[in-house]
Amino acid sequence: MRQDFYTFADAKHFTMNIPMLDLKGQYKRIKNEIDTAIHNVLDNTNFINGPDVHRFESNLAKYLDSRYVIACANGTDALQIAMMALKLQPGDEVIVPSFTYAATAEVVGLLGLVPVLVDVDKFSFNIKVEDIENAISERTKAIVPVHLFGQAADMERIMEIASRYNLYVIEDNAQALGAKYTFSDGTVKHLGTIGHIGCTSFFPTKNLGCYGDGGAIFTQDPALAERVRMVTDHGQRVKYYHDIIGCNSRLDTLQAAVLDIKLKYLDEYSASRYGAAQIYKELLEGINEITLPQEMTYSTHVYHQFTIQVSEKREELREYLAGKGISSMIYYPMSLNNQKAFSSISRVGTSLKNSEMLASTVLSLPMHTELTPQVQKIICEEIKFFFSEN
Ligand SMILES: *Cc1c(COP(=O)(O)O)cnc(C)c1O
């Protein structure tokens, strides 16, 4: 091991693992507040629909400047509930990017709808707006843009297409909560509040993560908000009077209590991630085999992931880093059109060459709120060393 390569302060990391994220470090900084909130819930035993749930919904609505926020059990449910509330019917087509987490398209299939796969842009990783119109058919009812890795899909153009073809827009904002979109007239909106419905996840690894499962749905439309709420609660408006078929999808009180505290720190967390991304970019500049992630002018970036594209020897680099105790992850190794579960139920709307290219080149590096420049320096020096030797 090339010890001379590092400063003395770095040396201790040789015996450490460098993980993708550090939830424990983040918890420790707010331990007192969190523990108190959890004990309050335990003391009150109001485990379902306790006051924390409502308080969190209302604080998140304020934070996002969203008229309605309805909490639910997880991000996948949020997407399903959105499609149920919009009364999408079996056979209806829903446009989704082919390079995303499977949950986006899975709920489409679950409801008997047809996912129509559209390619993504190779710089933003987000749905390629130029391709959306070619994928629209008579049966198309909705578009689900995913704000992948922490920055917005091009919402202004997506909303324009949607309004021309009379389609719903459901934003999958599981990865970019806290990021904002700037329209050409200067209007700025939080992601998740632009489409007819926005969905997010509070899975522990997300930018606003709880200590279990959680999710939420956003809308600006009172009638839709009421329907969403009914769908999350067995289709009832009044207890034991069931008007529509719904499901059971609740954020539990303990998770709401945790989230209500963490929400206060979300902007600080986003700033840490953004700062860490700038350091990565500086340190990884000029390596020919690597394409760095790009920031779009219309969006802020909250770096859910810091994802590079490695044109050659990605697997070897990943193994080399693993050997040094440095974690990295491939989000995502397969484009949806190549996934067994989707091949027979989806329709391929356009060429998916960027999605397929990205599946074989992307590599996400450790990214979290506790990342230090020293650790990033180790990671980047190892990457540079790998390419100088290979
Ligand atoms: C995490 C995630 C989901 C699903 O959220 P869960 O809370 O895990 O159900 C959906 N879409 C995207 C893009 C995600 O990253």
List the helices and strands and how they pair.
Layout: H1 8-11, H2 23-29, H3 31-44, H4 51-64, E1 68-72, H5 75-85, E2 93-97, H6 103-110, E3 114-118, H7 129-135, E4 140-143, H8 155-165, E5 168-172, E6 180-182, E7 188-190, E8 197-201, E9 215-219, H9 222-232, E10 236-238, E11 241-242, H10 253-264, H11 266-284, E12 290-291, E13 306-310, H12 314-323, H13 340-343, E14 347-348, H14 353-361, E15 362-365, H15 373-389
Parallel strand pairs: 2-3, 2-4, 3-14, 4-5, 5-8
Antiparallel strand pairs: 1-9, 6-7, 8-9, 10-11, 12-13, 13-15
Helix pairs in contact: 3-10, 4-10, 5-6, 5-9, 11-15
Bound molecules: pyridoxal-5'-phosphate.
How does this model look, in words?
It is a single chain. By secondary structure, this protein is α/β, with parallel strands linked by helices. The protein has two domains: 2-16 and 266-389, Aspartate Aminotransferase, domain 1 (Alpha-Beta Complex); 29-263, Aspartate Aminotransferase, domain 2 (3-Layer(aba) Sandwich). It is 41% helix and 15% strand. It has helices at 8-11, 23-29, 31-44, 51-64, 75-85, 103-110, 129-135, 155-165, 222-232, 253-264, 266-284, 314-323, 340-343, 353-361, 373-389; strands at residues 68-72, 93-97, 114-118, 140-143, 168-172, 180-182, 188-190, 197-201, 215-219, 236-238, 241-242, 290-291, 306-310, 347-348, 362-365. The strands form four sheets. An eight-stranded mixed β-sheet has the order 1-9-8-5-4-2-3-14, sandwiched between helices. The protein has a three-stranded antiparallel β-sheet with strand order 12-13-15. A hairpin with a 5-residue loop joins β6 and β7. α3 packs antiparallel against α10 (253-264), α4 packs parallel to α10 and α5 (75-85) crosses α9 (222-232). Pyridoxal-5'-phosphate binds at residues 74-76, 100-101, 103-104, 146, 172, 174-175, 201, 203, 213, 215.
